[in-house]
Design goal:
Elements lengths: L2 H13 L2 H8 L3 H15 L4 E3 L4 E3 L1 H24 L6 E7 L1 H6 L2 H10 L3 E7 L2 H9 L5 E6 L12 E15 L15 E4 L5 H10 L10 E4 L3 H9 L4 E5 H4 L8 E15 L6 H13 L9
Parallel strand pairs: 3-4, 3-5, 7-8, 7-9
Antiparallel strand pairs: 1-2, 5-10, 6-9, 6-10
Helix pairs in contact: 1-2, 1-3, 1-4, 2-3
Organism: Martelella mediterranea DSM 17316
Keywords: DNA-binding, Transcription, Transcription regulation
Pfam families: HTH_1, LysR_substrate
């Protein structure tokens, strides 16, 4: 087992194809096939199930991929740490969907223009999953939402810097009666992301703080803010999202807003993580921050 073999394994796992992985790596398919066969012989289990048109990871292969990702990412981090010249290599950024939509486009475009030697790998997930990914070295840093009274112990193992203060709004269908308290909200369904999303957690806590009937609150899980907004405009659900995101979706229909609370988006990373690419990315995020406190972080 060596880093080159792990890189081949990762490419085949991602592409689910020997041919596409070979094209991506600049190798001939027979070389890639040999590497995979040698790796499986070394670990003593089948890492892929060979189907007609694709290579699918076995359960053992999925476990092995997680370790391979960590090893390759650590090797890249080590290379950048001991050779701190201009930003280069790969920077793996995780983020909530809302931050990608409302805060990152211009920042990422400027960063790519100024530092073309840095390869940005951007992934999105709810806050809880992003924290797990940073801790497991699957990503280098993440933009996450932290509630003011969040006592989540996993955050103690990370360095966090507040960057953006987001105003959360409750969206209700057009013509909904005035909302002064949770008990005023109808219908009894919340469109939200999967568990692990801080905004979903806060929305549930607020809505469940109303009358006992709140126990009948239903959750309709959706995969995007567009779907969340559309469900609300159609009258099927209510939803909670940052106002900065809601403002970009008004073309999807008419809704009414009710201000809920402010929640800060933080940049999270492992203690001591300081590659040149990350330090430049952090500097740009701090310059764009709307929280004065972060300027001294």
């Amino acid at each position: 087992m060596d880093l080159a073999t792990l890189a081949v394994f990762r490419a085949v796992a991602r592409e689910e194809s020997i041919t596409r992985a070979a094209e991506l790596l600049g190798r001939v398919p027979s070389n890639v096939t040999t590497r995979i066969q040698q790796l499986e012989a070394e670990v003593g289990v089948a890492l892929f199930a060979r189907e007609t048109r694709r290579m699918v990871l076995t359960s053992e292969g999925k476990t092995y991929l997680d370790y391979a990702e960590r090893i390759l990412n650590l090797a890249e981090e080590a290379r950048q740490q001991i050779n701190p010249e201009d930003p280069g290599g790969t920077l793996r950024i995780g983020s909530m969907e809302s931050t990608v939509a409302s805060r990152l486009p211009a920042l990422l475009a400027a960063f790519n223009r100024d530092w073309p030697d840095v390869t940005i790998e951007l992934s999105t997930a709810p806050t809880r999953q992003l924290v797990d990914a940073v801790q497991a070295h699957r990503i280098d840093c993440a933009l996450i939402a932290i509630a003011a009274d969040d006592g989540w112990s996993a955050l103690d193992a990370l360095e966090t810097i507040p960057l953006f203060r987001e105003e959360l709004v409750l969206l209700v269908p057009k013509g909904h009666r005035p909302v002064r308290a949770p008990a005023d909200v109808e219908p009894m369904a919340l469109a939200a992301f999967a568990p692990g999303c801080t905004y979903r957690m806060l929305a549930e806590e607020w809505l469940m703080g109303g009358a006992p009937a709140r126990s009948r609150l239903k959750i309709q899980e959706v995969g995007s803010y567009h779907a969340m907004f559309a469900c609300t405009a159609a009258g099927a659900c209510v939803s909670v999202m940052p106002k900065s995101v809601a403002d970009t979706l008004s073309h999807l229909g008419s809704v009414e807003e009710h201000e809920l609370m402010a929640v800060d988006t933080h940049l999270a990373c492992r203690p001591g993580f300081a590659t040149p690419a990350f330090l430049e990315w952090r500097k740009r995020l701090l310059a764009a921050s709307n929280i004065e406190l972060s300027a001294s972080a």
